[in-house]
Design a protein that fits this description.
Blueprint: H1 4-12, H2 18-30, H3 32-46, H4 58-76, H5 86-95, H6 113-121, H7 126-145, H8 152-176, H9 179-197, H10 203-224
Length: about 230
């Protein structure tokens, strides 16, 4: 059976061999249900906002790098400060002018400056991409945990912004030539799209949230162990 992840890779023309693409193309011509599912996926993707193309200026990049340096220094201090892993997330939020302690679930949009910075510096600073991506996964987990069940429009807007950030990090990974990371990030889109289309309190929505939380947590762990 052809799943949504394969359809997404087919749509983006990435991660599939020529025979795999030919197989999906042939099935789309003969399988009406598959063709309808693919069209729904395309419709959902077309409704998502395009990633912001703005590139931060040199001063913003300098402030972000300084924040990363401070996070490293905090990590090297004795374990009497167990909150140091939050320093990077806090620094990224400060670049957006978000007060410390503001809950992401109460925002109309997730912050996008951090992934823009990561995309802008990916080619020259792989460590910055790794740290920024780990922070993004943590922020996304917090947001998913507090998605409003009673406001479908807000839920969809918040999930759309997670997808937008994922795409920005895909650009960063692509710029660095990390195709494995590109595919991992892209594979999250079908689950996020499915979550956006489900009723907030439904069993399918709870299952999708649990799956995403698990996958984000796994990626955070892998990134934390990266050399």
């Amino acid at each position: 059976m052809i799943n949504d992840e394969q359809l997404l890779l087919y749509h983006y023309d990435d991660g599939l061999s020529a025979p795999e693409r030919a197989h999906i193309r042939a099935r789309l011509r003969t399988d009406a249900d598959l063709a309808a599912r693919y069209q729904r996926l395309r419709d959902q993707l077309s409704q998502l906002p395009a990633p912001t193309a703005a590139v931060p200026d040199a001063a913003a990049l300098a402030r972000w790098r300084a924040s990363l340096t401070r996070a490293d220094q905090a990590a090297a201090e004795p374990p009497s400060r167990p909150w140091w892993p939050m320093a990077l997330a806090g620094a990224a939020l400060m670049l957006l002018g978000v007060a410390v302690g503001t809950r992401l679930a109460e925002s109309d949009r997730m912050p996008s400056a951090a992934p823009q910075l990561a995309a802008a510096t990916a080619a020259e600073d792989g460590d910055a991409l790794t740290r920024g991506l780990s922070s993004h996964f943590g922020d996304a987990r917090l947001l998913l945990a507090d998605l409003p069940d009673e406001d479908p429009a807000q839920r969809q807007a918040l999930i759309a912004n997670i997808i937008e950030q994922n795409r920005l990090y895909q650009q960063a990974a692509q710029a660095q030539g990390d195709e494995r990371l590109v595919r991992v990030l892209r594979s999250l889109e079908p689950v996020l799209l499915g979550l956006a289309s489900e009723a907030g309190g439904s069993e399918d929505a709870r299952s999708a949230r649990a799956q995403l939380d698990f996958e984000f947590a796994v990626m955070q762990t892998k990134l934390s162990r990266s050399p």
